[in-house]
Every structure is written in C-alpha cells, then in structure tokens.
Design a protein that fits this description.
By secondary structure, the protein is of the alpha/beta class. The protein is 36% helix and 30% strand. The protein has a single domain, classed as Nucleoside phosphorylase domain (Rossmann fold), CATH 3.40.50.1580. The strands form two sheets. It has a five-stranded mixed β-barrel. Strands 5-6 form a two-stranded antiparallel ribbon. Helix 1 crosses helix 7.
C-alpha cells in the first residue's frame, strides 16, 4: 500500500495528527524545529523508505502556525499554495534581497497541484495562501507588517515547510503544507495563543484526509 508521509516539528503535533489519521494510510513523524532539522529529518525518512522498497506517494508538512491578521485568523486552517523561505537571502542598505536576486537558487516551492487539489477538496473550509518559513519567529508588529508587505499572498508563517519541501523536491515526491493557526503573527503574547484549539484542528485535518 502506498502511504503518505506527514512530517511535523514536535511530538504534540504528530500525536494530534495520529489521533485523526486512518491507521496504515499515513506515517506521521516529528523531525525537529526549524528548516534545517525539517530538511534533514524528512530526507532521512524518504531515503529509508525508498531503500526499503516502500516509497511514499507524497509528503505533507503539517503543524500549527502563526496567521497574518486579516488573512488567517486564529482557528483557521491554511493550505500552502507555496512554501517560501522568507529569510533566505541577504540584507542590503536598500532592504532585503531574496536569494533569486542573488542568483543562487530559489526561495519558492510550489505545492504539488494534484496533492493540493485533493487536500482542498477534503478540507473545503481551508484557506489557500503562501506559507512563510522562517528560522526566527516574528515577534514584533514592525516585522509582521514588513513581511505582510513583502508577501501579499502569505497567510501564515512557520519554521519547517521549506525544509520539508526541499527534501521532497530532491526525492521527486509530491509535497504540500498545511497549518492550523494558533496565534496572530506579531508581538509574542503567549496568553492569547490557542494551542489546544490548533492541535484539535490538526486532528480534524487528519480525519478528513482521503
């Protein structure tokens, strides 16, 4: 049976997804926080499966995230049309230059169209938008506003999507990212975060997977 690999950052996210997922249809593994850990962990899982003769049919990066105000409110589910390494580039006196403008590659990974279509049909209430990958979580209103202006299609920010997507691209396996929103992007007011609600939403996402 071909399976879907679902990669999360931490165990709590993996447990929430396992609570809703159909046994045997998906494999859920936490690989660590941040783009480097996500890329390394996902690449290892894909390589082991291929070596065993049981390659995955797709890779889904899933977990909780911050949402841009006015685009993805707390409680929403976001399907990433693209996973973007928002801080991959260089600072200059005139502002930030993405890696594309430096001529060293791309900071943009498109979700697999067929996988995204399947997820959209399974999750009709989900929002579609870009999901930013950052190694440093946004903690000020100024940075949130700057990111919102640079990425007008961005709905959420997290720390692993681009890393998992890079591993999937290297392996030639379809990739997509889904996030449930636990907090608004900006000043870190932990008292306002809704982690329990976001994890419960992940369980509902997993239960809806075809």
């Amino acid at each position: 049976m071909t399976r879907l690999l679902i990669v999360t950052a931490v165990a709590a996210e993996a447990e929430a997804i396992r609570a809703g997922a159909s046994p045997g249809r998906v494999v859920v593994e936490p690989v660590g926080v941040g783009p480097a850990a996500a890329a390394a962990g996902a690449a290892r899982l894909l390589t082991l499966a291929e070596a065993a003769g049981t390659p995955y049919r797709g890779v889904l990066c899933a977990g909780i995230a911050g949402g841009f105000a006015g685009r993805a409110e707390v409680g929403a589910t976001v399907l990433g049309t693209r996973s973007i390494a928002a801080d991959l580039g260089a600072e200059t006196p005139d502002g930030f230059l993405p890696i594309e403008e430096l001529g060293f590659g791309t900071s943009l990974l498109d979700a697999d169209p067929a996988l995204l279509k399947t997820l959209s049909e399974a999750l009709p209430g989900a929002l579609l938008g870009d999901i930013l990958t950052l190694a440093t979580v946004t903690g000020t209103a100024q940075t949130a506003a700057r990111l919102a202006a640079r990425f007008p299609a961005a709905a959420a920010e997290a720390m692993e999507g681009y890393g998992v997507g890079s591993a999937a691209a290297q392996a030639g396996i379809p990739f997509a990212e889904v996030r449930t929103i636990s907090n608004p992007i900006g000043p870190r007011d932990r008292a306002s975060w809704r982690l329990g609600e976001a994890l419960a939403a992940l369980t509902k996402v997993a239960a809806a997977l075809p």
